């Protein structure tokens, strides 16, 4: 005998409570496969997060290009000084002037080294500050390995005391690098 009741799809019945998949806490992820899965599932389709990650990537690349261009300009300026000195010595030699005065005070790479070293130190500090900022942003977004709970990270010296899901700091750094590569691949323009 046939029932006159309409067939009810159990999975789409609005009166029936849906059992959502348990939400994974990114601060507790300590291995690559769950981290990769989490990022792809939670971030890849999220326009807001995608925009934030793209902006972080764009800012970092822009900063790197700017610093490199400034360094190249500084090196070119130094090379220009050397070329001008060489031309001055050559011209004085042709005119029969005294080359000794110019040779006593040479403008050389040795005199330019401190300026270049200061620029490199300044750039290094700036890049470290940028890395801290990016780290903070990724932590705030809940990116695995950046938002990790501190008690899950063990110092290198305490490696023998690893328990359960704990990882050492070196392993964490490697997983963070791997995560950054994944984010760049997923969100590149």
Structure, described:
With 189 residues, this protein is mainly alpha-helical. It has one domain (31-187). The chain is built from five helices and two strands, in the order ααααββα. It has helices at 32-42, 47-95, 100-104, 109-141, 169-187, and strands spanning 153-154, 167-168. The chain has a two-stranded parallel sheet. Helix 1 packs parallel to helix 5 (169-187) and helix 2 packs antiparallel against helix 4. The chain is elongated. The N and C termini lie far apart (61 Å). The model is unreliable at 6-11 (pLDDT under 50).
Report the helical percentage.
55-70%
What's the Cα radius of gyration?
A: 30 Å
* End-to-end separation: 61 Å
Order of helices and strands: HHHHEEH
Structural class: mainly alpha
Q: What is the strand arrangement across the widest sheet?
A: 1-2
Shape: elongated
How many structural domains can be distinguished in the coordinates? 1
Residue stretches low in confidence (pLDDT < 50, at least 5 long) are: 6-11
The main sheet comes to: 2 strands, parallel
Query: Mean pLDDT, nearest integer?
Result: 81
The fraction of residues assigned to DSSP E strands is under 5%
Please give a quick description of this structure.
With 189 residues, the protein is an all-alpha fold. The protein has helices at 32-42, 47-95, 100-104, 109-141, 169-187, and strands at residues 153-154, 167-168.
Keywords for this entry:
189 residues; mainly alpha; 5 helices
Question: Strands, helices and their partners?
Answer:
Layout lengths: L31 H11 L4 H49 L4 H5 L4 H33 L11 E2 L12 E2 H19 L2
Helix pairs in contact: 1-5, 2-4
